[in-house]
Write a structure and sequence with these properties.
Blueprint lengths: L2 H29 L9 H29 L9 H5 L2 H9 L9 H4 L2 H23 L6 H25 L1 H8 L9 H8 L2 H4 L4 H5 L27 H14 L10 H11 L4 H20 L2 H4 L7 H20 L9 H26 L2 H6 L16 H31 L10 E5 L1 H6 L4 H9 L3 H8 L1 E5 L2 H17 L3 H8 L4 H4 L17 H17 L7 H19 L5 H4 L2 H27 L5 H10 L20 H12 L4 H20 L2 H7 L6 H11 L16 H18 L1
Antiparallel strand pairs: 1-2
Length: 733
Amino acid sequence: MFSWIQLWWDTWDLRAVILLSLFLQTFLFFSAPLRKRTANSLVTIPIWLAYNLADVSAIFGVGLISKSCGDALGPYANPELVAFWAPFLLLHLGGPDTITAFALQDNELWLRHLLQLVVQLATSAYVFILTLSSNNQLWLPTLLMFISALIKSTERSRSLYLASWHRFRDSMIKEPDPGKSCHKLMDAYCPNQESGLPSRQEISEPPNPEPIVGDKNEPMLPNFKYNDGFYTDVLEAIYHHFEIVKGLIADLKFSSRERDKSRSHFLKLTPEHAFLSVETELNFLYDILFTKTPVISCYSRFNPSRFVSSVSCLAAFVLFHLMDPKHKFLHHKIDVEITYTLLIGTIIHDVIAFFVICTSNWNTVFVKPLDPSYYNIPPIDNIGVLIIWVFFPVLYRICFIIGIAIRDKIFHFIPIMNRRWSGCISQYNLIFYCLHPRSKKWDKLIGKLGLTNILDGKKYVVTKRFNEQLRDFIFEELKIKSEKAVAIKTSMEICSAKGDWVLTREDGCNNLLPYTLHADYDKILILWHIATELCYITEEGNSENEQEISKVLSDYMLYLLIMEPSMMSAVAGTAQIRFRDTCATAKLFFRAWEARKKAEDGHKVDMIQACRIILEFDILMVFNPPTVKEDTSKTVFFDAWILAKELKKLDKDKWKILSKVWVELLSYAACRCNANSHATQLSKGGQLISSVWLLMVHLGLGDQFEVSEDHQTDPQSRDENHQQPDQRDDDLV
């Protein structure tokens, strides 16, 4: 019955697998960069599927080739042509330049990929050696493709290795520093010339002192658009700051001197330039962790290994085309067409990859393709030097200009390519969740299947765009705190506040302090989320910016707490238990009022009615303020009602207070989120909290800094301490 299926598979198995492998490589090449620009599951799921199938198809294909070469009577009776396909599958195992790891965990498996590479190389070499005994006329093109495949496969293994946590952390550790005082020991025990050790002057005065960021010689950020490719000085300044802070991903500390340099620079920036800088830095980090950039860029215009790989592939194509009619491969016409498809597809990938490298931010920073002073042409003695120092730079500049023009056209017609991250803020609302519950049976079923979070994300999570008003407000609030946090100790105190720092500095907010002081972060967040929602829904006609900012940040922070627990693990506490208990209370409350409402007019209670019902209900008749204590439940439903009543008394000032409190709650969570969690989100479209975290680091806020004696107190306090000895001396005189 299924004999025709068996016959089709025996005839087309290898052909189908190798074409599938080429398709997967092409799909990943063009679609993988979208991962950092969108969090849409319709984009990420196909990329995930293609990423996992790509390696499987390459490994399976090499196995089919080894089997086919031993079957002289099979559908692939020409083994030398089939053996020519083996290096293509080995090349596909190296993957495209745009993706090496789908998640950070893949980088830790670099040794496994290296083992796969060795096994595949051995299998392919075995197939190639078998064909040599039968006078393989394609041995030279096959050997050239082996060279290209080996280069690209090792590029991926090396990229995974460099992005692994331990190797990445080791690369951040500086050279050993013996300290400036070691010259005393050298002077005491032996002369500098005899010891062979550095002299006192060499230790005390570094030959190339690091320029201070923020001085008059540092490139500042001019006005430019997202798709503007001609901002070399801007990218140099951004990359300089990225080099300083990227060690935070490896749990390294930020020195006080580096903090002062970065802080002085970012305090001068506009909100647009500040967020653009941190978004670009996060893109640099994405390239290091998830692509081949650390290997193929090499901080140089000329990559010898990639040049050899491309030339080998092109030479293999030329040789195969010349040898094809001579050796009569045409009796397997379909196989010859597949071979041409593989060769042309590989060459097209190389050409496009070259233009992508030319126009990348890395190339703009290190190569400066449009800077004439970068090309210092020495005296030309022979034709070889002429080609290397004149022809290649001119060709490279032409390719750069063409690549920029093509990229700008693509960005114009595909707006998503303009983004550096998704630019979306997910929203999760507790009141909406309680008013639209699932049935208990259905909820229990999906819970057993482990689909609760996935289906909750589809039903209860919506997204909003990150707009300029929210961006400017967040930056200005952080800037105010940065200006006050001159000392690192002060910065740590400010960032340890969970809304109380704002409340103590605003008039008429003393009654709100009990709802922020001496409470767990998850309790504060859920409490203020419900109170914000009650105030927002009942004043829906108001469209103030601060009101919208409060609403967006409130729903976003609850989304992180409930739907992204890995990012909030350091501050979550008993968030899930508290959330469920609060929802249980709200559902019982709404169920009672819904039954009453249906009895009256038969209509279901909506969100506006629900919030008004909560505010109209006099809880104080049953409970005493300021907080409601439960025996075992962790619900904060009634506490939120009391807080909303207190906020209502502030009239329009409440939105100013709420917006500032939510920025403080956002910054508190941002600087306590594990750096590894921030890095993980880069391949999922990014998160606003990651940009806020990096911006806080640059503004000198947080606890990622080494506290030196000079930064334990404010400058004013240090000046007073310095004056005290002089005053005592005057008294003695």
